[in-house]
């Protein structure tokens, strides 16, 4: 087993103005800090728009860590993370990918929606998620040891899991895990008001509508209304757009393309908002 050297002190936190706002709903901030101190990889689980990405950005800034964010997709391969040889100026040069940069420089590498990536990505991550904390680069012959300031975080939405896209237990059990959900009503109202500039009294009906529509998840709609969508709707209202138009554009339209479902959502919004 590798010996653990003393943890370096993180860079002084940036001024609070530079730290992305985040409203904690539990002990997730303290858990993140302890995971970083002990060099443990972190898995964030929760629905779309529940604050996972904002949380990571907040904690990276709070701890003074460089942040390397990767939005995973069907074509994302291990080479996209580690790097590849490219032709530059008539010469072939090696260019580090975001994961390799994070390991070399120290910092937080965040893979958003990890289950969307190709299967070979997990193979690359495994040596970084145990006591070895190494990144083998076969194409350059290097074996990089992650510095104490390196941390790996990944996220996914369990609601989108299926037989073809699932995080294997052998991978999932390599991470400390935090489950995210939408904020309690009063807390969500405060967050939306702060993000949008709309007063809390005007935000409350939008949050109540979103909470009502979330109960339809898995029935008429695949995913519940995210806090992000409520912020969009509130921002449009704050900019002067009539509330029904803002709700249609920022909440109902993003939820479905089915005419019948959309008509049903419109009726619910009319009944809820008046």
From TrEMBL:
Organism: Bosea lathyri
Keyword hit for Nucleotide-binding: yes
Residue stretches making up the ATPase dynein-related AAA domain: 41-175
Protein's name in the database: Nitric oxide reductase NorQ protein
PANTHER family: DENITRIFICATION REGULATORY PROTEIN NIRQ, MOXR FAMILY PROTEIN
Source taxonomy: Bacteria, Pseudomonadati, Pseudomonadota, Alphaproteobacteria, Hyphomicrobiales
Keywords: ATP-binding, Nucleotide-binding
Recorded GO MF terms: ATP binding; ATP hydrolysis activity
SUPFAM superfamilies according to UniProt: P-loop containing nucleoside triphosphate hydrolases
Domain CbbQ/NirQ/NorQ C-terminal: 188-270
Any Pfam family matching the protein: AAA_5
Highest taxon of the lineage: Bacteria
Family, per entry: Belongs to the CbbQ/NirQ/NorQ/GpvN family.
InterPro entries: ATPase_dyneun-rel_AAA (IPR011704), CbbQ/NirQ/NorQ/GpvN (IPR050764), CbbQ_C (IPR013615), P-loop_NTPase (IPR027417)
């Amino acid at each position: 087993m590798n010996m653990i050297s003393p943890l370096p002190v993180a860079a002084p936190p940036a001024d609070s103005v530079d730290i992305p706002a985040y409203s904690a709903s539990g002990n997730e901030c303290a858990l993140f800090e302890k995971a970083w101190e002990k060099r443990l990889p972190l898995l964030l689980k929760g629905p779309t728009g529940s604050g996972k990405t904002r949380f990571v950005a907040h904690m990276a800034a709070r701890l003074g860590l460089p942040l390397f964010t990767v939005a995973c997709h069907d074509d994302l391969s291990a080479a996209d993370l580690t790097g590849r040889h490219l032709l530059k100026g008539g010469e072939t040069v090696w260019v580090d990918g975001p994961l390799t940069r994070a390991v070399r420089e120290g910092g937080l590498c965040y893979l958003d929606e990890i289950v969307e990536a190709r299967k070979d990505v997990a193979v690359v991550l495994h040596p970084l998620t145990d006591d070895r904390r190494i990144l083998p680069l076969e194409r350059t012959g290097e074996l990089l040891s992650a510095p104490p300031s390196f941390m790996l975080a990944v996220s996914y939405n369990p609601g989108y899991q299926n037989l073809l896209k699932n995080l294997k237990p052998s991978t999932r059990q390599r991470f400390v895990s935090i489950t995210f959900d939408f904020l309690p009503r009063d807390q969500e109202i405060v967050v939306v008001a702060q993000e949008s500039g709309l007063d809390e009294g005007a935000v409350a009906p939008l949050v109540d509508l979103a909470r009502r529509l979330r109960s339809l998840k898995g029935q008429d709609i695949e995913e519940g209304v995210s806090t992000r969508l409520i912020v969009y709707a509130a921002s449009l209202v704050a900019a002067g757009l009539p509330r029904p138009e803002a709700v249609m554009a920022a909440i109902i339209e993003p939820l479905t393309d089915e005419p019948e479902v959309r008509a049903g959502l419109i009726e619910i919004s009319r009944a809820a908002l008046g």
